[in-house]
Amino acid sequence: MIFLTGATGYTGKFVLDALVxxxxxxxxxxxxxxxxxxLDGVSFHTGDLERPESFVDxxxxxxxxxxxxxxRFAPQIVDACRKAGIIRAVFFSSTRRFSKIDDASVDAxxxxxxxxxxxxxxxxxLRPSMIYGPGDDRNISRLYAFLNxxxxxxxxxAGNNLVQPVYVADVAAAARDALWRAMAIGRAYTLAxxxxxxxxxxxxxxxxxxxxxxLKVHIPLFVARPLVGLGEKLMPKFPLQVAxxxxxxxxRAFDISKARWELCFAPRSFEQGIQDAKIET
Length: 281
What we know:
By secondary structure, this protein is of the alpha/beta class. It has a domain at 2-131 and 165-193 and 253-267: Rossmann fold (3-Layer(aba) Sandwich). Helix content is 39%, strand content 19%. The chain has ten helices and 13 strands. It has helices at 10-21, 74-84, 104-117, 140-149, 168-179, 199-210, 221-234, 242-247, 257-263, 270-280, and strands spanning 2-5, 26-30, 43-46, 64-67, 88-92, 122-128, 131-132, 152-156, 162-163, 166-167, 187-191, 197-198, 215-219. Helix 1 (10-21) packs across helix 5, helix 4 (140-149) crosses helix 6 and helix 6 packs parallel to helix 10 (270-280). The two termini are 31 Å apart. The relative contact order is 0.13. The model has no long low-confidence stretch (mean pLDDT 92).
């Protein structure tokens, strides 16, 4: 049986679906207030990742762990695995660990990975880039919805920075396959789309798919940073952070050859993924 964390999150639901369709038995860790609607054919344990003692008993009878939860929870999960005698674990991390921007979120990813690497577990680390797909992926779907409502698209900076989004079902398949591949033990894999594109090119694909003529309005980063900083101070739930604006200047293009070779990772193109997501929603 596989113990799965993050099953009620966006990516976690796709990982769970991939496991169930492969005939795996799965036990999911869920919070007390989490909705489990639509998660059929699996067992659940109510617990809190902040407290390993709340879920370590649920690892009994499990042979492995897939943690789709944020990598910052790695210390708690590693601790629970040790106490339960589980050796094999797949952890989701993020390509954010490659960012050169000084930010607490980057530090948290790097620290989480270090915990996994030094854990003594037979681990695999998966580092997906920007994940998108059917429903509210909190990334591309929101851009697509914005383009469907507005003719003007604000672009922070020149928009020539590279991005490489990855389709959620392709990520889920990689997690499923990584668990049983001996060569994946002790390895870290970057999961991204088949090729990078500029941010503006990504917007063009979305606009074309939506059948919209969109005018891009460029806002220089030196103007955007102080405006976003002011917004953060005035509004506790401001949708952007200064660190996010700073990262817009970074190229997020990645080499996925290792995942292609060792996991048989075959991500669909962005154009195909957008079509698939549109059909399925």
